[in-house]
Amino acid sequence: MIEINRAGTALEEALRLQFQNFSENERASRIKQLLDSAENQIVSLDDCLICRRGERLDGVLLLVSQTDGTVYVWPAETRGVLHPDDDSQIRRLLYEEAARVVDSPGVWIGQSLLETDQKEQSREFSEHGFSRLTDLIFMNYAVRSTTALSSRKATSADEFWSSEPFDEETNAADFARLVEQTYLETCDCPELNGTRDGWESMESHRRAGTYCPSRWRLFRHEGRPAGLLLLTEHSPEPVWEVVYFGVAPEFRGMGFGKRILAAGIDLAQEHGVDEIVLAVDVRNEPATRLYQQLKFAQFDRRIVHARLRKSRTSELQTAVTQAAKPNR
Q1: Is residue 129 part of a domain?
Q2: Are 218 and 175 in contact (CB under 8 A)?
Q3: 24-39 vs 11-18: helix axis angle to the nearest 10?
C-alpha cells in the first residue's frame, strides 16, 4: 500500500529529491534559501508531501505556504527507478493530497509557475485538479537608460490629478476598495475576481519583495480614487517590481494607466533603480500594448496552474441557501 505523509524530519532529503534535476550548486542554493525562509517564518514547509516505502524515499511534492493563504505548488518528483505503474500511482496520490491541503480553510489559492517547455508537468497539474489558468508574460524596463518621463510639459489636466503614498491610518481603506474595484471587468486573471477582498490582496502584495509604503501610490482624479500602483524592491539588486497596477472601470480608456506607470518610472528613477519588472496575463492585450508603448520588453513567459477557493460571493450565496432550507 502506498501512503502519502508529511516530510517532517525528512525535509532536507525530500528537498534534494524535489530539486534532483538541478545542478548540485543550484540545488544546494535553493534548499538553503527555502530552509532559511522557513526558519525565519517567512514561509512554511510543514506540508511538504512525501511517499516513503521502507527506507527509500520514492516521491515528493513540495508545498510552500504563506500566512496570506497562498500555497506554491511544485510539480511532483519521483525516483527514476520506479515501475511505471508505481510512478503513476505515487504522482496521483501526491497531487490528490496537495489538493486537499489547498482546499483547507485559510487557503485561497494553490498555484504553480511552469516553464513553457514543461508540457508533461502541465498535463499532470491539469489532470489532478490544478487547472491551467493562463500564461504570464514577464516584461522589464531599463530605468537608467531613459530620461525622466515627468519632464514632459505640464498640461491643464494636471491640476485635476494627484497621487499619495499608502498610509495605514489615512487611506488604507481607499486602497482596499480600489483594489476590489480594479478587479471588475479586468482582463488580467479575471478568475481571481471575488476570491479575496481588497485587504487580503494587499496583505499578499506586502509579501512580494521588500515592502515600503512610499512605493505604494494611490492616484486621484478630481479627488476620486482612480487607480493605484504597488511597487516593491527585490534587494540586494536595484530592481523594482510592479506587484499590482489597476485603474477603476470608470476611468479606463482615458490615458490614466499611462500616466500612472509614467509616475512609477519617475519614482524609480529618483531612487536610482536600474530596472522595473512586471508580469501580465497574455490575455490582457490592452495592458500589454500600454507596456510596449512605454518601452517595456518581454524577457520570459510562464504557464500558470492554479486551484482556487470559491469566490466570496459564491460562499455567501451557499450560506444563505443553506440557512433558508427548512429543518426536516
Answers
A1: no
A2: yes
A3: 140
- From residue 216, give the alpha-carbon distance in Å to each of 13, 101, 103: 40, 32, 31
Q: Of the candidates 326, 159, 179, which has an alpha carbon nearest to the alpha carbon of residue 246?
A: 179
The amino acid present at 181, given as its one-letter code, is Q
**Are residues 57 and 157 located together in one domain of the fold?**
no
Q: pTM for this structure?
A: 0.86
Residue range 81-102, pLDDT digits in tens: 899 999 999 999 999 999 999 9
Distance CA 286, CA 188 (A): 10
Q: What is the pLDDT of residues 139-183, one digit of tens each?
A: 999 997 665 555 444 444 566 789 999 999 999 999 999 999 999
Report the distance separating Cα 130 and Cα 305, nearest Å. Answer: 6
* Residue span of the structural domain in which 61 resides: 5-107
Strand partners, 232: 241
Q: Of 253, 257, 197, give the one whose Cα is nearest residue 227.
A: 257
What strand order describes the sheet that includes 5-6? 5-6, 49-53, 56-61, 77-78
Q: Which residues of 200-312 form beta strands (DSSP E)? A: 216-221, 224-233, 239-247, 275-281, 297-308
Residue 326 to residue 187: CA distance in whole angstroms: 41
Q: Indicate which CATH number applies to the domain containing 246.
A: 3.40.630.30
Single-letter amino acid code for the residue at 235: S
Strands 275-281 and 239-247: parallel
Give the Cβ contact number of residue 81 at 10 Å.
9
Measured in Å, how far apart are the chain's first and last C-alpha atoms? 42
Cβ-in-10-Å burial (0-12, 13-18, 19+) of 300 comes to middle
